[in-house]
């Protein structure tokens, strides 16, 4: 670059200017509106929002929300210098995260026939539950009385007919539908459905409403703990520490006792690893175990209310983005340049706001496992991921019987279903309205609703001081769960299988 600056200054200047212009447009397109949208949510300036991580921003937001509700913010979480698991020095502990799996490899096209081996009993089960699924879509998802639908019997009979044909001819080769079954806002909706909050994970010592009381507020939820620990026993650890302490050995030309407690713990841990390597021929062992945590359904809902408010606001911004996109297209067709420009600007603003809300919304889950966080709970993080993994795995079990799953993501499934499988239908109402139903989506949502309803959700009435059961909260997960996106006439190429 120095040589070009002296020999070809014009060429060098052209490069520098083009680089600056490209950087400006990238910033203007992807960063500018997004950063200022975040600044409307978080009490910080653009410089701080750019520099700080999502966990820090999330904590700042939670502190503001806690201040508004007169809630005392807890101190930052401080981990003990040494932890033990069944008498062994614990090196690290975490939880099992989301389930990701590649099931099939290859190229899949919606115009290339695939072989299917369906399970007749699963299709018969869908036939038996068709009224349940359609009623769930009409009354729960759309909020319409079933009696208002004028063509219910026609749609039902068409779905049943297609399912019966598949049941009677389960082995077939035909063109597939390629689906991406995506769970909308999975982790935030799991948090809301089960009223999960770091301060709500209680035990006999911390429960404020009577741990042994029979008030239905104790919800038992599973999570999977994973830890790495040293093979050496606790007595061997104590002997190692005693040796360093009594002899005051010099470590890196400095007496052991001159180090601060944190460094002393690190030195002892390192010495224990060396001892294990010599004696046990390994430095660590890994163990996974399923644990059960108690979540209080009566704890102050400050955390849950914050998540719900952000989720609902994001949905509103997405609707506004869609609305202004439509207005922009309409203005362009009518030749109204000023209206089209205004509509495009509003689309950018609302889109940046919904993306900002999405980033914060996704941070509510990851934040609870951040070291030093004020609201920290490994149990809550583990419950969220295990519940999500179970949901996806159970959906996969059904898809395996009526099609072929290709890939499992943390919050969705790529799969293929026979083209003869019932797909889109239209309900007509007495007032002339129309409601489009995607049967695969409706079928899975109904199943999720049945399996993951929280019958213990409790709500406090601030006026009367009485607590009431509110089962309807579970619908927030079901109604926005497996939203089907059909990708017709496209090619899906799963990632390669991992090397054995």
Topology, pairings included?
Layout lengths: L1 H6 L1 H31 L6 H6 L2 H15 L15 E2 L2 E8 L5 E2 L5 E2 L4 E4 L2 H9 L1 H12 L10 H17 L2 E4 L1 E8 L2 H8 L7 E2 L15 E16 H13 L14 H19 L5 E12 L5 H33 L2 H31 L10 H25 L1 E6 L2 E7 L5 E5 L5 E5 H14 L5 E3 L6 E3 L5 H4 L3 E5 L4 E2 L8
Antiparallel strand pairs: 1-2, 2-9, 3-11, 4-18, 5-6, 7-12, 7-17, 8-10, 9-10, 11-12, 13-14, 15-16
Helix pairs in contact: 2-12, 4-12, 5-7, 6-14, 8-11, 8-13, 9-10, 11-12
Question: Can you put this structure into words, describing what you see?
Answer:
- This protein has 500 residues and is α+β, with helices and mostly antiparallel strands.
- The chain has two domains: 19-78 and 204-208 and 297-367, no CATH class; 101-203 and 377-492, no CATH class.
- 49% of the residues lie in helices and 19% in strands.
- The chain has 15 helices and 18 strands.
- It has helices spanning 2-7, 9-39, 46-51, 54-68, 120-128, 130-141, 152-168, 186-193, 234-246, 261-279, 302-334, 337-367, 378-402, 439-452, 475-478, and strands spanning 84-85, 88-95, 101-102, 108-109, 114-117, 171-174, 176-183, 201-202, 218-233, 285-296, 404-409, 412-418, 424-428, 434-438, 458-460, 467-469, 482-486, 491-492.
- It has a five-stranded antiparallel β-sheet. A five-stranded antiparallel β-sheet has the order 3-11-12-7-17, with helices on one face. A two-stranded antiparallel ribbon has the order 4-18.
- Helix 6 (130-141) packs across helix 14 (439-452).
- It is globular.
